[in-house]
Specification:
binds zinc ion, 6-stranded mixed β-sheet, binds magnesium ion, binds guanosine-5'-diphosphate, about 25% helix, Ribonucleotide Reductase Protein R1, domain 1, alpha/beta, Rossmann fold
């Protein structure tokens, strides 16, 4: 991509701070050189994209604000990958990824991998919670291939991104889906019980003519980008129906009088872990964000 183009792009976007001018899944116009290298002339407008707040100082803008990091563009489905254990299932992280996926308008599915490590059957509880929200939940064991067939069927004909914490088994699952892939698999470090980052770049993998998979590096943290406190409930399917009945239309469902979400929580109409998760996310959204 020529440097001149980068500059023009930033001017055109009128200081809309995107870290990534071109990302995985983008369609581009390009010229092909004789040596088979290419020069990008134009990035076609994205239908949608999945993003988060850039995690580190590397992603800080000139005034210190954290920029948007785009994971992938032009996607239909997001398969959120969790593991039953090693690393331990974390419902708050799952809810954060759900918010990022919902706000990008993706079809969401949840994979609970390493189901062989669920000795207490805890995951059956969570399966019901998320299926009641309308998300399909797959139980898989990527080491034996158990449960992978259903995922294979549901990803036909679309572009799917696989996203989740490091070490949950994203690359292992993709290797099961297509044995030709041979993606590198990491070791979960016994010391921290956290995954090591084996997948370092995001890869778009063609499986068949219209079916594409995107493998992503694992994440430790996720904060959705550009979210306002009063909009967060839109991405919690179980809370949003109550939000219409709140006294104030700017209600954040935290402490406000006449809040129908709080009332629903108190009357045990919403799952307490989900409401807790909502509050936890609400707290991490800064009040005066620049958009
Ligand atoms: N017990 C168990 N281990 C798994 C399973 N799937 C993957 N693993 C292991 O988990 C580790 C991380 O896998 P990897 O695919 O690299 O995870 P990624 O970081 O999400 O891509 C590797 O040691 C895998 O062998 C599973 O279903 N059960
Ligand atoms: Mg990986
Ligand atoms: Zn409210």
């Amino acid at each position: 991509m020529p440097g001149k183009f980068k500059k023009e792009f930033h001017l055109k976007k009128n200081k809309q701070y995107n870290l990534d001018i071109v990302t995985v899944g983008d369609y581009v116009e390009f010229t092909l050189n004789q040596d088979k290298s290419g020069v990008i002339l134009e990035v076609i407008n994205r239908k949608n994209y999945l993003s988060r707040k850039a995690p580190s100082i590397k992603g800080a803008g000139f005034r210190g604000e954290r920029l948007e990091q785009i994971v992938a563009a032009n996607i239909e489905k997001l398969f959120i990958v969790c593991s039953a254990d090693n690393p331990r299932f974390n419902n708050r992280l799952l809810d954060r990824i759900i918010v990022a996926g919902e706000s990008a308008n993706l079809q969401l599915h949840i994979i609970v991998n390493k189901i062989d490590l669920d000795f207490t059957d805890e995951m059956s509880y969570w399966k019901v919670v998320y299926e009641n929200l309308g998300y399909r939940v797959y139980f898989t064991d990527a080491r034996t291939g158990k449960g992978i067939e259903a995922i294979k069927e549901d990803m036909q004909g679309v572009t799917s991104v696989f996203w989740g914490a490091s070490g949950v088994g994203k690359s292992s699952i993709l290797n099961c889906i297509d044995s030709r892939l041979n993606l590198k698999i990491g070791d979960t470090s016994a010391k921290t019980n956290k995954g090591t980052h084996t997948t370092v770049t995001t890869l778009l993998i063609p499986v068949s003519e219209n079916t594409f998979l995107i493998d992503t590096p694992g994440i430790r943290e996720i904060e959705p980008y550009g979210l306002k406190k009063e909009d967060l409930h839109h991405y919690f399917r179980d809370l949003s129906p109550y939000a219409f009945e709140c006294r104030f239309n700017t209600c954040t469902h935290h402490h406000e009088p006449g809040c129908a979400v709080i009332e629903a929580f108190e009357n045990e109409k919403v799952n307490p872990f989900r409401y807790e998760s909502y509050l936890n996310m609400l707290e991490t959204i800064e009040d005066d964000m620049l958009f």
